[in-house]
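User: My collaborator and I are trying to settle a disagreement about how two of our proteins should look. Neither of us wants to argue from intuition anymore, so we agreed to look at predicted structures for both before our next call. Could you fold the first one, then the second, and keep them clearly separated?

Assistant: That sounds like a sensible way to settle it. I'll keep them separate. The first protein:
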Amino acid sequence: MGFSQQYDVPGLYDFLTNTPESGLRKMMVDNKTFTEPHFNLLMKVVRACDETKFCEHAEKADFPKVKLGPAEIKIKEKFWNDCFSCLSTKGLLNPSQKKNAA
């Protein structure tokens, strides 16, 4: 997928862990492209991981060992695409900073 090359995923993790969930929910859940199950699944991944693991899961478009509800199982396949699409549209996801060669 390459999300971690395309976007500032560590910055996203930092934002998600330092912003109150109620505020995140208001910003992110629009019930069109990003629903309550999307939000719940994202929060489960954030809580289950440190920054490195979160970035790895985003890169591989997979999940840590978390218990998924029926609604989350339905969106699991397209979750990371939906998530990054929504977050970049809402301006919550920054492009990755190009690392200069030494």
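The second protein, kept apart from the first:
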Amino acid sequence: MKKIIFVLFAFLTFSSNAQTENIHLTNALVVGQLDKSDDRYLIEAALTELLTNSGIKATPSINILKVGNDSKILASDSIQNILKAKGFDTYILVSVRGFDKRFKLAKKQGTLLELLSEGHLFPIYRDEAASVSFEFFFYRNGVFVGTDLVKCGNISSKETVIKRFKKKIRKCIIRKWK
């Protein structure tokens, strides 16, 4: 009985890790799910820059949506057809998962529309926080393909968050996403 439980545990562990190791990004629309528009712009611009520098065709959602529009519009058929015509079939949704704790990958894997509809109230920096965790969801052709969680520690300002974010994500792109 113990062997069966161990084998099942090992299988589940390896299958959850496999979600982020085989994404094979070639293109991406970067969607920052943050409440403040300046935080959203910073994260989308930083991630788009890193993806582009790694040879992955990328664009931020702020180039597609008008300021103040709801991000649910990105799940509409008309926008998806426009993006496909431009060569984009993969969405990367990035949000702040929380501060100062060790988080695990999210168990829920909703549809693209459900995730775009969720509200995210955390800013990228909070004065009393020593670290911030970012969560990434990957959708290709509207279907969930993986998730990743990146913790940026030793932060003291919004600028250090972006600096640590770029350093950590550069490694993720090379090791897991590309």
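Some points you might bring to the call about the second protein. The longest strand covers residues 143-153. Confidence is low (pLDDT under 50) at residues 4-19.
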